[in-house]
């Protein structure tokens, strides 16, 4: 396989490490299984008739061999033709009952199972939407995606037929054991003597199977996480001509996954022969001991045939339970990963006493803020910024100086370690998150365009805005002309991330979206990409409309934006080194002056 030959070309362990999925190596977790079944609770009523059908179906199956016993012993000598007919009718009736109950059971378990999966997926998605940025910082998006798709799907089999089949097999098994012992205790014990042996041999195997399937899931999760990253980063991959390298890495992971699957599957298949051998030994014992009992007139031929029939039915559920064990293990590995997410609590939690933030004016105070993403590494040190409503603040500084961090704190994506952020004098930790974020608008550097029409993308700012308001917002930020030049105007369909639009056009769309939302506080992470002078002028004009009457924080990259700001906060390594207007700071000839000179040599 090419993975082996490529392994010398680079050290794969140095890149794409998805540590997060390595952790689960625990034994079978019954508490987890019980927790999973909580999702079935709302469907208890619907489940009752299914269980009833299952019990009826199983009992009729158990009655079949009894008819055979009677037929051979009392009817086959041809003297009692009527009894043969009646036995035939009874057999047919039993088969019909089995057919009807099976059909009902399969149909309804599928429906209930799908509903449970639907609930679980919704619950998981609802939960991860609440999780803080901190959670997403630590995980590749792919691994989050895998849990909502693959891991939830892996539970599908369990919920659609697994649970009911499990119960059915258990009832059938106990029923047969009871009948075998009831018919003849000695014979029953003799034929079942091999069962403990089988459990003993298979218990070591079961452990290996469990680890095998866990390993498969980990490998699959890695592939999916990598796939997701690869698709997201396809442009970068192609620009750096990394396709071959990427392919070799993928091939490597894929072959590891294949090996892991083959191993688990081979272990799983080892179950079958163990059961077959045990069954064969059991059958030998039955006929050896059974014939001697016939010779001694203790049992009849019909009895032995019926007994053999029950024995056949005895191994069937055991075999299925063995297979189901691996299904259960796959489901348990997935549910562990799902619950790991569900148990994750958002770092940014609302206080019980949190009140909605009233309609704000827009005064903002960063009061002696210290913040660290990781303990011991301060990203912001003693930051104090006092902003009056309606002022525009430009945040400037070299890369990594803490500009985005300030913005993250204002939206309460993280909480400071020390100090507080206040809006209109109210600590933002005391208000509900929704009321805070709905009054703070953000225009990100990498404007996210959703699949849909241009109109819908603008309307994302305020879902109940009318068409006229959408057009009005677009006009105000000078986006209307370019939208009208598109094939279907406002109805033009754009794909995810808006690749048919230029960088400048995407910016204007995001301005229109923000204007429609009409927040009192606006955060703008200005795009760094250079655009032509004409678009630059348009954007500056658009910005003026957008910023009017709002408090704004801008991570500014264009000199024109920085110049127009009411106040410029200059950051260096998480510390404010200078603050003032453009003219004041240039006059001062300090850090800002050097920074601006370095960035914009034409000044
Ligand atoms: N999620 C994170 N986890 C850990 N450290 C982080 C995280 N985000 C940022 N940092 C660190 O915090 C510091 C400030 O980062 P920040 O993103 O605020 O800088 P910035 O000024 O916005 O940079 P840029 O102009 O490059 O966007 C940097 O040292 C960065 O490495």
Automatic annotation (TrEMBL):
<dbReference type="InterPro" id="IPR003439">
    <property type="entry name" value="ABC_transporter-like_ATP-bd"/>
</dbReference>
<dbReference type="Pfam" id="PF00005">
    <property type="entry name" value="ABC_tran"/>
</dbReference>
<dbReference type="InterPro" id="IPR003593">
    <property type="entry name" value="AAA+_ATPase"/>
</dbReference>
<feature type="domain" description="ABC transmembrane type-1">
    <location>
        <begin position="50"/>
        <end position="328"/>
    </location>
</feature>
<keyword id="KW-0067">ATP-binding</keyword>
<dbReference type="InterPro" id="IPR011527">
    <property type="entry name" value="ABC1_TM_dom"/>
</dbReference>
<feature type="transmembrane region" description="Helical">
    <location>
        <begin position="187"/>
        <end position="205"/>
    </location>
</feature>
<dbReference type="InterPro" id="IPR027417">
    <property type="entry name" value="P-loop_NTPase"/>
</dbReference>
<keyword id="KW-1133">Transmembrane helix</keyword>
<dbReference type="InterPro" id="IPR036640">
    <property type="entry name" value="ABC1_TM_sf"/>
</dbReference>
<keyword id="KW-0472">Membrane</keyword>
<feature type="domain" description="ABC transporter">
    <location>
        <begin position="364"/>
        <end position="598"/>
    </location>
</feature>
<dbReference type="Pfam" id="PF00664">
    <property type="entry name" value="ABC_membrane"/>
</dbReference>
<feature type="transmembrane region" description="Helical">
    <location>
        <begin position="83"/>
        <end position="101"/>
    </location>
</feature>
<feature type="transmembrane region" description="Helical">
    <location>
        <begin position="294"/>
        <end position="315"/>
    </location>
</feature>
<keyword id="KW-0812">Transmembrane</keyword>
<dbReference type="InterPro" id="IPR039421">
    <property type="entry name" value="Type_1_exporter"/>
</dbReference>
<protein>
    <submittedName>
        <fullName>ABC transporter ATP-binding protein</fullName>
    </submittedName>
</protein>
<keyword id="KW-0547">Nucleotide-binding</keyword>
<dbReference type="GO" id="GO:0005524">
    <property type="term" value="F:ATP binding"/>
</dbReference>
<feature type="transmembrane region" description="Helical">
    <location>
        <begin position="50"/>
        <end position="71"/>
    </location>
</feature>
<feature type="transmembrane region" description="Helical">
    <location>
        <begin position="163"/>
        <end position="181"/>
    </location>
</feature>
């Amino acid at each position: 396989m090419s993975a082996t030959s490529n392994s010398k070309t680079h050290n794969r362990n140095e890149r794409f490490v998805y540590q997060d999925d390595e952790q689960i190596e625990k034994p079978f977790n019954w508490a987890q299984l019980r927790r999973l079944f909580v999702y079935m609770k709302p469907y208890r009523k619907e489940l009752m008739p299914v269980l009833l059908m299952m019990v009826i179906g199983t009992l009729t199956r158990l009655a079949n061999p009894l008819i055979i016993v009677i037929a051979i012993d009392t009817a086959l000598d041809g003297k009692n033709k009527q009894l043969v007919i009646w036995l035939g009718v009874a057999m047919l009736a039993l088969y019909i009952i089995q057919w009807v109950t099976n059909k009902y059971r399969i149909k309804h378990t599928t429906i209930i199972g799908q509903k449970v999966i639907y609930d679980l997926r919704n619950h998981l998605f609802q939960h991860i939407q609440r999780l803080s940025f901190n959670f997403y910082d630590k995980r590749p998006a792919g691994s989050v995606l895998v849990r909502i798709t693959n891991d939830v799907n892996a539970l599908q089999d369990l919920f659609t037929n697994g649970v009911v089949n499990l119960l059915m097999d258990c009832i059938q098994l106990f029923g047969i054991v009871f009948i075998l012992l009831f018919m003849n205790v000695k014979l029953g014990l003799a034929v079942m003597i091999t069962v403990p042996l089988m459990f003993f041999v298979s218990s070591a195997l079961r452990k290996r199977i469990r680890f095998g399937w866990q390993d498969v899931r980990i490998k699959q999760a890695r592939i999916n996480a990598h796939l997701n990253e690869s698709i997201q980063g396809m442009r970068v991959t192609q620009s750096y001509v990394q396709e071959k390298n990427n392919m070799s890495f993928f091939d490597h992971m894929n072959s590891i996954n294949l090996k892991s699957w083959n191993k688990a599957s081979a272990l799983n298949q080892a179950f079958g022969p163990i059961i077959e051998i045990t069954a064969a030994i059991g059958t030998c014992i039955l006929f050896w001991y059974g014939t001697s009992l016939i010779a001694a007139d203790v049992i009849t031929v019909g009895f032995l045939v019926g007994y053999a029939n029950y024995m056949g039915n005895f191994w069937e559920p055991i075999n299925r339970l063995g297979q189901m064990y691996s299904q259960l293990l796959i489901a348990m590995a997935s549910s562990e990963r799902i619950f790991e997410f569900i148990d994750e609590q958002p770092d940014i939690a609302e206080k019980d006493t949190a009140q909605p933030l009233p309609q704000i004016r827009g005064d903002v105070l960063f009061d002696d803020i210290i913040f660290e993403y990781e303990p011991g590494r301060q990203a912001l040190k003693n930051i104090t910024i006092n902003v009056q409503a309606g002022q525009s603040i430009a945040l400037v500084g070299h890369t990594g100086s803490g500009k985005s961090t300030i913005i993250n704190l204002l939206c309460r994506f993280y909480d400071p370690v020390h100090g507080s952020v206040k809006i209109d004098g109210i600590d933002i930790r005391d208000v509900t998150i929704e009321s805070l974020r709905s009054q703070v608008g953000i225009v990100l550097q990498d404007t996210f365009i959703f699949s849909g029409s241009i109109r819908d993308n603008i309307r994302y700012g305020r879902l109940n805005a009318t068409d006229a308001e959408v057009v009005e917002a677009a006009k105000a930020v000078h986006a209307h002309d370019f939208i009208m030049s598109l094939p279907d105007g406002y109805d033009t369909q754009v794909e995810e991330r808006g690749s048919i639009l230029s960088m400048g056009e995407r910016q204007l769309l995001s301005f229109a979206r923000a204007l429609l939302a009409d927040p009192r506080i606006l955060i703008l992470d200005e795009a760094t990409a250079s655009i032509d002078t004409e678009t630059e002028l348009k954007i500056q004009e658009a910005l003026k409309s957008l910023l009017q009457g709002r408090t704004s924080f801008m991570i500014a990259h264009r000199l024109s934006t920085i110049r127009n700001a009411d106040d410029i906060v200059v950051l260096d390594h998480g510390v404010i080194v200078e603050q003032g207007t453009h003219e004041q700071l240039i006059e001062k000839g300090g850090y800002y002056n050097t920074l601006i000179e370095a960035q914009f040599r034409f000044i």
